[in-house]
Amino acid sequence: MAPxxxxxxxxxxxxxxxxLTWVVQQGRPVIPVxxxxxxxxxxxxxxxxxxxxxLDVLRGSLEDAGARLILRRGQALDVLRTLIEETGxxxxxxxxxxxxDERTRDTAVKEALRSDGLTARSFxxxxxxxxxxxxxxxxxxxxxxxxxxxxxxxxxxxAPEPAPKEFAAPEVWPQSEALDDWDLGRAMSxxxxxxAPYARVGSAAAEGRLGxxxxxxxxxxxxxxxxxxxxxxxxxxxxxxLGEIGIxxxxxxxxxxxxxxxxxxETFLKELVxxxxxxxxxxxxxxLTSENWRSEWDAFPWSDDNDLAEAWRRGRTGVEVVDAxxxxxxxxxxxxxxxxxxxxxxxxKHLMTHWKVGADWFADCLIDxxxxxxxxxxxxxxxxxxxxxxxxxxxxxxxxxxxxDPRGTYRRRWLAxxxxxxxxxADAFFEAIPESWGLxxxxxxxxxxxxxxxxxxxxxxxxxxxxxxx
DNA sequence: TCGCCCTTGAT
DNA sequence: TCAAGGGCG
Length: 470
What we know:
- The chain has helices at residues 18-25, 45-64, 76-87, 100-115, 145-152, 179-182, 191-195, 203-217, 221-224, 237-241, 247-259, 265-284, 307-313, 320-332, 337-350, 355-365, 371-382, 397-404, 409-414, 424-432, 452-468, and strands at residues 4-8, 30-36, 70-73, 91-95, 119-123.
- It is mainly alpha-helical.
- The chain has 3 domains: 1-126, 3-Layer(aba) Sandwich (Rossmann fold), CATH 3.40.50.620; 127-158 and 190-284, Serine Threonine Protein Phosphatase 5, Tetratricopeptide repeat (Alpha Horseshoe), CATH 1.25.40.80; 295-464, DNA Cyclobutane Dipyrimidine Photolyase, subunit A, domain 3 (Orthogonal Bundle), CATH 1.10.579.
- Strand 4 (91-95), helix 4 and strand 5 (119-123) form a beta-alpha-beta unit.
- The chain is globular, with a radius of gyration of 23 Å.
- The chain binds a DNA duplex through residues 136-138, 140, 142-147, 226, 270, 274, 337-338, 341, 380, 387, 389-396, 399-400, 456, 467.
C-alpha cells in the first residue's frame, strides 16, 4: 500500500486535525513530515527557536503513537518530490494556511504535485471559518470586525476530532534530518535560556492551559485581561500559532463556558474570532502583511528605522510602561495585550515611526508571533489598517499606566534601574539582551526621549495634514 | 438609499 | 465633549 505524506506546518498536534483524521481513515501508512522551507526560513529569531521546541515535543507524541516525524530542509516542493520518490507515496495532504507567502507556496505545490499525477488534498484546520465562507450581504469580504462577528457567532465550526490512537507505519521510514542540526535557536543567543522557562510547549501543555483558563480565568476575563500585572488571559496564542491546540477545541471550550453562564465566555469567543478575522483579511487582502492596508497612508510622513526606534526596541524610551512592555517581550517572548497596543501606539504616533519597524521587531521577539494577527494589530494601531482606531485616538502611556497598572506592579516587575532591590524578572532582561547593547541596570533610567505632549501634538498635526492632503 | 454603528481613548 | 468617514444591513 502506497503511503500518504502528511505535510505538517502550523498544525503541530494530533487531535482536532482534519488532514490527519482523513489520512488515518484511509487505513494506509502515514508519513508525517515537517519541512524547513522557503517560508519558515524567513521567520524571526524567537518564532524559529520556539518552533524547534514544538517539533521536539511533537516528535515524542508521534513516537508514542508508533509514528515518526520526518524532518527535511529545502524548498517545500523539492522536499516533497524527493520523499515521494523515496517512499512511493502517491498522496500528499495538509491543513490550509491563508497568509500571502504561505498561500503562494501551497498553491504552487498543489499545482505541481497534481501535474506530476499525484493526489494533493488540503483541509480546513487552522481557522474556525475559512475566509471565503464568510461573506457580507452583497457578497464581499468583511472589513469591520463587529459585522464579521455577528455573521459567524451562531455558526458551528464542527466538533474537533479525537487524536488517532495508532498509525499504520510504512514498511521503511525515510531518513530524517536531525533537529539539532537545524540549530533553530541560533539567532536567540543568550535570550533562549531566559525565555525558555516561560514557554509552554506542545499539545498537552496547551490543553492544560485551556483547562486552567476555563477553571480560573474566563469568568473574570472581561476586566482581568486588561490588567497589566495580572495573568488574566488564556495565554493560548503561543500554542495556537503553531497549531499545538486546535481552534475548534478552544471554541468548544468557550461554548461550554457560555452554557455554564461564565461572564467572560463571550469575550473569549470574540477573541478567537479576532484571530479568524485577521486570517480573513490576510486572505482577501494579501498586502495586509507587507503594505499599508489603506494606500492613502503611503504618503504619511512616517520615519523609517531610526535612533528613537532603537531606544524603543531596547526598552529605553524613558516611558516606564512602554519600556516595561518591551522588556516583558524580550524576557518572556510574549507581551500583555494591552501593552502591545500601548507600545505600538507610542512607536507609530509619539515616535512617528513606520508600523513595519514595530511589526518586524515583534516578529523577531515573540514566541506567539502570528503573521496575520501581528500585521492586523500593527495596522490597527497605526491607523492604516481595517477598522483602525481613528487618528485622534493616541494612547497616553501615563493615563494607561494609571488605569491598568495602578500600583506600578507591572512596571516594577520589568524595570530594574533605580530600584534598591530589583525583581528577578527585571534583572533577567539584562541577562537576555546582547552584550553589544552595552546596558546595565547601574546606568540609571533614561529621561523620556520624546515629551509625551509634544509627541502627541506632532502626530496629530501630521495626521491632520494627511487628512487635508497637504 | 439611508441611517446606525464602529475593540481596547483623551482632554 | 470630541471626532472621520465609510462599512454594512
